[in-house]
Amino acid sequence: MSEENVVYIGNKPVMNYVLAVVTQMNGGTTEVVLKARGRAISRAVDVAEIVRNRFIPDVGVGDIQISTEEIVGNEGTATNVSAIEIQICKE
Predict the structure, then answer these.
(1) pLDDT of 5-17, one tens digit each?
(2) What is the pTM of this model?
(3) Coil, strand or helix: which one is 73?
(4) What residue segments make up the domains of the chain, in order of their start?
(5) Does domain 3-90 have CATH number 3.40.630.30?
């Protein structure tokens, strides 16, 4: 999996990420990975569902991986943040 097939989900509107995934899929990419942390996880799930249900019907959800990442803040305190990777691939 090359780094260009990864869409990092953040605080932008959901449709921005949907457009990024659809653009990659229409460009010939067979799989895209959505990566999100913390509160953006629900946005990543929304992106996967909107792409699957509204834009590209022959796309499926492949592997889903969940993990916990440790983020060190400005004061040196470590915080655990949930992370998810959702693989979207053409069937």
Answers:
(1) 999 999 999 999 9
(2) 0.90
(3) coil
(4) 3-90
(5) no
